[in-house]
Design brief:
By secondary structure, the protein is mainly alpha-helical. It is 81% helix and 0% strand.
């Protein structure tokens, strides 16, 4: 099982990279828009995995091979993980932008 410390490290690394490129959020609205975009990207990857799961079941029922489907699911699983790390980083960026040092 993956250690949560590794995940938190990846989130912090993503946040640091994002902060180098983009300033802190200036409003709740800006934070919402960026977080929503990241969530949509996570959902798109999960949708791809769901479609591949359906394809996998179809192939199993017809005694067809599933190796290529498993490989595709693995790729989309990694993409979903990457997008989820970005989602978490943007949530932290919103907290840092809007709720640190008595800003709200």
């Amino acid at each position: 099982m993956t250690d949560n410390k590794i995940i938190h490290t990846l989130i912090q690394e993503e946040l640091a990279e994002a902060n180098k490129i983009h300033p802190l959020f200036q409003s709740d609205h800006e934070a919402y828009a960026v977080i929503l975009e990241e969530l949509e990207e996570v959902e798109e990857e999960i949708l791809q995995i769901r479609k591949l799961m359906d394809e996998m079941w179809h192939r199993i029922r017809n005694d067809w091979g599933i190796e290529d489907v498993l490989k595709k699911m693995k790729v989309h699983g990694v993409y979903a993980t990457q997008e989820n790390i970005q989602f978490d980083a943007m949530c932290q960026k919103a907290l840092d932008s809007l709720y640190k040092e008595g800003k709200k």
